[in-house]
Write a structure and sequence with these properties.
The chain is of the alpha+beta class. It has a domain at about 40-75. Helix content is about 40%, strand content about 15%. The protein has two helices and four strands, in the order αββββα. The strands form two sheets. The protein has a two-stranded antiparallel sheet with strand order 1-2. A hairpin with a 6-residue loop joins strand 1 (about 40) and strand 2. The longest helix is centred in the N-terminal third of the chain and has 24 residues, at about 1-25. It is rod-shaped and about 90 Å long. The N and C termini lie far apart (about 95 Å). The structure holds zinc ion (ZN). The site of zinc ion has 8 residues, from loops.
């Protein structure tokens, strides 16, 4: 009977050590679901969102194409006003 009690205590201690070592090991990889190159930039001229590596940067502003960067430099024209 005493051997059974001893066995229970040993198992309980092993279980406690095991759970403690698992929690201290840190399973903090659950929240790492972000993509590295998923940044979207908004074109300062036509408000179209383009991927960050495909955007044309001019200072603090971003453009979807070189044409829109030039158009923005030429003047504050509204691209939607084309009638
Ligand atoms: Zn644009």
């Amino acid at each position: 009977m005493f051997r059974i009690l001893l066995l229970v205590v040993v198992v309980w201690l092993l279980f406690k050590v095991f759970t403690r070592s698992r929690s201290s090991a840190g399973e903090h990889k659950a929240g790492e679901g972000m993509r590295g190159s998923g940044i979207m930039r908004r074109c300062d001229y036509c408000d179209v969102f383009v991927p960050g590596d495909e955007s044309i940067r001019d200072g603090e502003r971003y453009f979807c194409s070189e044409q829109h960067r030039q158009a923005s430099l030429n003047g504050p024209e509204d691209p939607k006003c084309g009638n």
